[in-house]
Amino acid sequence: MSLAVAAEGVTRRFGRRWALRGVDLAVPRGTVVALLGANGTGKTTLLRLISTLLRPTAGRLEVLGRTLPAGGDAIRARAAFMTAGGHAYEELTGVENLRFAARMSGTEAAADDLRGALAAVNLAGAADVPVRAWSTGMRKRLELARLGLRPLELVLLDEPFASLDEDGVRLVHEAVRRWRAAGTAVVIASHRVEDATRHADEIVRLVGGRAAAATR
Amino acid sequence: MSGLARRAAAILWKDILSETRARQGFTAMLSFAALVLFMFGFAIGVDNDLLERLAGGLLWVAIIFTGTLSLGRTFQNEELAGGTRLLRLYPGDPRAIYLGKLAGNLVVLAALEIVLFPAAAILYRVDFAAQAGPLLLVAALGTFGFSVIGTFFSALTVHLRARELLLPLLLFPALVPVVLGSVGATDAFLAGDPLGRAGGWLRLLASYDVILFVVCVWIFPVVLEE
Fold it and tell me: N or C: where does chain A have the smaller number of CB atoms within 10 Å of the terminal CB?
């Protein structure tokens, strides 16, 4: 099975602090990998490296067949990263936020499609309300809707279950199931072990910036 | 429309929509600009000849001071939305981010100048209308140069703690040719350009604008790196 992510000895340093020290990771296409670990062990840094937001200080990182950092643009066209804090503009409505995301991704989605994407995450009633009036959980659902706008080969989720109610958590699980069935690789970094590992084909634990164990 | 232009247009659309809904930013900017113009008027007093002679310089200083406030906010709405660097997660040339933000700043500064020029004309008793065409060209070149370098430095300083202080510290020295060219050309046109100096100032402005634009567009992707 070909790999969506292949990391060999990936290291990242911020000033004098080492966030990752020689991490090896292999994520086959169509599989789900759960990244576990305490705060500050490098989970988010690893996702940011894979997403092309950061460059490794050392090591080799190949994503969707492209070696970073040279192949960044080709990777971004086929991968998406849901950050823990989300990415939404306060003054824009839900539909407008999705329209912006679609345009930035190089597509022009019809208003009905955008409303459909919001309805799929139970946000139909808030579609025309500015995001500044939304709760954190609703913003998280908006992120989920954004990821559903285009076909993806790799999805990176950072704390996707945080701030969500039961229905929201169910929506994340459904999305992960759908992506996996479609052959999309999914990497989930979370402190909610039970949720993060529910669909996981492999569990990777990070300790002190190192991949301590891979199980399952 | 190319992918680069489409993404730049998407950023411009999003920023204008946000700005027109939030509104406080532009209103505060206009109030500040009016205060600056009044302060200069009070400082110089009732000497009409002196006010008239200095009008070009005072107007451009008011535009630069007020515009710096606006430029400082260029990337702050991105930070509130989750982070400027998240825009890099979208595929395509990251220069689209710079071009979209630059276009947004040009729109805001043009709106500011539409109010400032008539206000300065009334306060300083200067007849800008008599030289409307040439002054429009000066305003366009000056505003473009100001926006080009301001947008770039705004991106460069957005992640720094002392960004409010650092932006003008970096920006003002780089703006010297823009200020010299704009004030020189404005003064020359207001005086009827008896010595034919306006052309030289316009050439300085245009050349500096082109150089700034090429350099800023070229190196902008590095600014977004972490």
Answer: N
